[in-house]
Amino acid sequence: MKTLKDFPYKQVLVLGLAKSGTAAAHLLLDSNIRVRVNDLKADESSEAVQALKQKGAEVFLGDHPLSALDGVDLMVKNPGIPYENPLVDEAVNRGIPVVTEVELTSHLHKGPLIGVTGSNGKTTTTTLIHKMIEADGKPVSVAGNIGSVSCEVARSTSDDETMVVELSSFQLLGTEDFRPDVAVWLNLYEAHLDYHHTLKNYHDAKARLIANQTSEDSLVFNADDGKIVSYLPNASAHQVPFSLHNKEKGAWTDEENIYYEEEAVMSREDIVLVGPQNLQNILAAVAAVKQVGVSNQAIYEVLTSFTGVEHRLEFVTESNGRLFYNDSKATNILATSYALRSFQQPVILLAGGLDRGNDFEGLLPYLSGVKGVVLFGETADKLAETANSAGIEQIEIVDTMQQAVDKAYAMSDAKDVILLSPACASWDQYSTFEQRGNMFTDAVHKLK
């Protein structure tokens, strides 16, 4: 496995031992770099901690002593740890660079690197790109926010292998030299203000994706998103737009076909994925894979068979004429509005979750096809007010997902869509959106 060569740092503090921290610490130790590890909750006797100690890591557990920074010239932090953390704050005060493990990836991977970010659609687009390159018979790997730690994956990639990395704003904020050969910027909306504090901070974190690109690189961007377009004057990369509305250079569509430049790639009626947001994701993926020479045949093979990513407008089953969709990844208003626009049939909407202080007026224009709502979590009352404003007569508030599915089924008729699309994060009741989605699908399969 590859290790870091000519790495400019000699002693590194790894803050947070989750998957990314553990992978980064092992990489650094294998590269003969001195490593300290600090974690608030890790168990001293755990296999992960013991393995790092056996390799020579100095481990601090249970608190965040500022002395852990003494002699350190780089911090690699877990992306979810906020910059208000006392160790992170002190590192910044001392002038110690603070990065996430994604930064290490660029020191390892030598082949083409495609980085994908956006407020919505990252995982679907990353998956499409990966599958299209794979269908074309080219070596490819996938990593990042999609599930696999990128610096760990990069340790075993070949020099001719394309690496596709899904990148969150948390990860990108901790980059200095990270430079994708192809940057894919899907959209920009309000999100994660509890972490970034201001919308500008959040948008600027996303813009780190393109900060180090040169004229030799490509920037695939959403030409329909004015906030992204506002960053383009500072972009050095070759710009490749995608658009639902304009016949731009790059990837675009009319009522019949998907195009790249002037060439029709395939017919829209052959595409399996539903929804306008997925059409944007498809255009972005087509534009991205064209930068690495993928054929139309490979694109066609993927788009005629790919039915979606789990928890992202995922078709679950049909039961007594009702169609059940799991969109648990819809953790904000925009994602839920996209889901609602995906169906012509009447919808029973299941929604609610963590209260981040948002109101839900932004959903009002998309509730006209909703015949009933079943609500849960901290935002249930707020969403009930919005549903009432929309003139929805059937409004139920429940405590559990099984209750939600049972109530939704009772409201529904044959040919209705029963849609879990919460418009909120899951952390008030569930550890992850995946757990929430799994509870939904389990409840659906328990229906009698």
Describe this structure in words.
The protein has 448 residues and is of the alpha/beta class. It folds into 3 domains: 11-99, NAD(P)-binding Rossmann-like Domain (Rossmann fold), CATH 3.40.50.720; 103-303, Mur-like, catalytic domain (UDP-N-acetylmuramoyl-L-alanine:D-glutamate ligase, 3-Layer(aba) Sandwich), CATH 3.40.1190.10; 314-446, Protein-Tyrosine Phosphatase, Chain A (Alpha-Beta Complex), CATH 3.90.190.20. The protein is 31% helix and 21% strand. It contains 16 helices and 20 strands. The chain has helices spanning 19-30, 47-54, 86-93, 102-105, 122-135, 150-154, 169-173, 193-196, 199-207, 226-229, 276-290, 296-303, 333-340, 380-389, 401-411, 433-446, and strands spanning 11-15, 34-39, 58-61, 74-77, 98-99, 113-117, 140-144, 162-166, 182-185, 218-222, 238-243, 251-253, 257-260, 263-267, 314-319, 322-326, 347-351, 370-375, 394-397, 417-420. The strands form 3 sheets. Strands 7-8-6-9-10-11-12-13-14 form a 9-stranded mixed sheet. Strand 7 (140-144), helix 6 (150-154) and strand 8 form a beta-alpha-beta unit. The N and C termini lie far apart (52 Å).
Topology:
Blueprint: E1 11-15, H1 19-30, E2 34-39, H2 47-54, E3 58-61, E4 74-77, H3 86-93, E5 98-99, H4 102-105, E6 113-117, H5 122-135, E7 140-144, H6 150-154, E8 162-166, H7 169-173, E9 182-185, H8 193-196, H9 199-207, E10 218-222, H10 226-229, E11 238-243, E12 251-253, E13 257-260, E14 263-267, H11 276-290, H12 296-303, E15 314-319, E16 322-326, H13 333-340, E17 347-351, E18 370-375, H14 380-389, E19 394-397, H15 401-411, E20 417-420, H16 433-446
Parallel strand pairs: 1-2, 1-4, 2-3, 4-5, 6-8, 6-9, 7-8, 9-10, 10-11, 11-12, 16-20, 17-18, 17-20, 18-19
Antiparallel strand pairs: 12-13, 13-14, 15-16
